[in-house]
Design a protein that fits this description.
This protein is mainly alpha-helical and 96 residues long. Helices cover 59% and strands 0% of the residues. The mean pLDDT is 81.
Length: 96
């Protein structure tokens, strides 16, 4: 190997690796919306239109509002924990 003038030194490894919270509130909200929209955007509208007719748009809006409430509940609970683990940590704290 050619010499570059720098000595290679071993990288120091932390004794207790920890996860870093690198995602913010808005990024989490965007990912959640992306998962919800991405999973049914191709097949669901035609099924809803066939079943509900003109009321299908209202059904989609009501479902979005319901998911917004669920998302708000998760964000409120998540703001109370500093540990990583999501719903597992919430259930562990609630039920032991």
């Amino acid at each position: 190997m050619p010499q570059t003038g720098r000595e290679s030194t071993p990288i120091e490894v932390a004794s207790a690796p920890a996860l870093v919270r690198a995602i913010g509130r808005w990024s989490l909200a965007a990912l959640t919306v992306n998962c919800i929209i991405g999973s049914g955007v191709f097949g669901l509208p035609s099924v809803l239109a066939g079943l509900l007719g003109r009321a299908s748009l209202l059904a989609v809006i009501l479902a979005a509002v319901a998911m917004g409430v669920v998302l708000a509940c998760f964000s409120e609970v998540a703001s109370r924990f500093s540990d990583t683990g999501g719903p597992y940590i919430y259930a562990q704290q609630a039920f032991g």
